[in-house]
Amino acid sequence: MKKIYLSLMLMVGLLASCDMDKKPYGSLDETTAIQSMNDLSRYRNYMYTSLRGITSGGWLTYSDIQMDQFHGLISNGNRVGIISNGIFTSSDGDLESMYAGCYSRIATANYMIEKGTAMAESGEFEAADVEKINLYKAEAYFLRAYCYFFLVDHFCQPYTAERAKQEGLGASIVTKYAPSGDVTTYPSRSTLDETYALIEADLAEAYAGMKAYEATDNSAVAPNSHYLSSYAVAAMQARVALVKGDNATALNKAKEVINSGVYSLTTIDKYADLWTKDEGTEVIFRPFMSSTEGLVSTGSVWTSSVAKNSADYIATAEVLMMYPENDVRFNTYFEAWELDVEGAMYDSYVFLKYPGNEALRTTAQNNYCNMTKPFRLSEMYLVAAEAAAVSGNTAEASKYLNDIRTQRIAGYEAQNYPATTVLASIKQERYCELIGEGFRMSDLRRWNEGFTRDPDHIENPKLNNVIVAAGRELTYEPGDHRFTWPIPKTEMDSNPNMEGQQNPGY
Questions:
Q1: Residue 182's pLDDT is what?
Q2: Does the pLDDT at position 396 exceed 70?
Q3: Domains along the sequence of the chain with CATH
């Protein structure tokens, strides 16, 4: 693995070097950087900052911009245009940044696990401190699992029985913090089975550790928690299992969260608050964010216009027509603006799922910053519905689908969906509920479906003239190689053990 990818990104005051061969003046040695509970607590805070970063901004939006739901406008300066138009290569800087970002966070987690284990086993700390150390280790296991899942769900081909055991199709696995300049020691790519086995094992460790801690302190087991809980881990386990095709586990873990009684679906009258205030009864985990920090704006990939007259990307007509009448999500996610595109005005619906939380405004301008909400109960209802439907349990799938639609569509009447249509209805619901949250590419990969962007804006045909032509009618066939991102060229060039292991098509 390239050294920069494996370097430990410590906060200021601990290790400060990105080149592990040269330590800056006054830095602490990696063997002594964490000595006390205070050191460990500060490092834990850094882990949460890292987790917040990987669950916001381009980490969520780029894959959605790549798919079928949004058109770029000619006035956007080609921002994210290479991804939107499907012409990215292994040299793309945005994709390289996310790949490297995963491995820097994996190194962070590895370091916490190793240091935490040594401290817990040293006999030098009180029992209460050891409990906290074990909790921090559990959180580190979660961070590592989250990063490896991002890698396998973006930079590896979709999981199938045929691909599962093939060498070189999984992620490069690193479970020890051991930076080295010796390229011969860098790992090759694993199998998909090996990658998923690591993710599942790490999540099991995280779950057990958090359950143990919650026996004495369950303050994180609550809606809008700034800290991970066993239910956040269970939600992640459900997500991973669904993508892998382990529907029994996906259903059981989703039901564990649903049936906990801790969370409830946000009601119609409170749904807008979920996005303007970043709070609601269904938010399982919400990393801490404040106006005093340097914030990442998730919503600005679509628009950042204070004057409400410009946008970079707008939803296709297909998206706008997908929402049923009286669906609270339409008026929550979309707002009618008059856009100035190269001096001419165009009426258009603008995507505003991330409108900016007033509590996070750092200036007089709305910077479209929202607290990230990586796990919500609504996703668990959709996971349970899909897993049940694929397993042939139409009645159970209908129940979960009815439950979520009742809280999204005013006047909705529950239905008994037939086996022939229930899965299609669940797919539509994921389309409507999770748009802009980074799920679309993963969904299409799992379903082995392609797409063609709807080219015509029937809501305002004039918009057809200001859509980026290269992406207007973009088509991906099922299994298109672009559903899997390339391993960055810099990584392929620097790691001789990955020779011949680039993803197909790059």
A1: 85
A2: yes
A3: 1-33+89-215+484-506 (1.25.40.890), 218-473 (1.25.40.390)
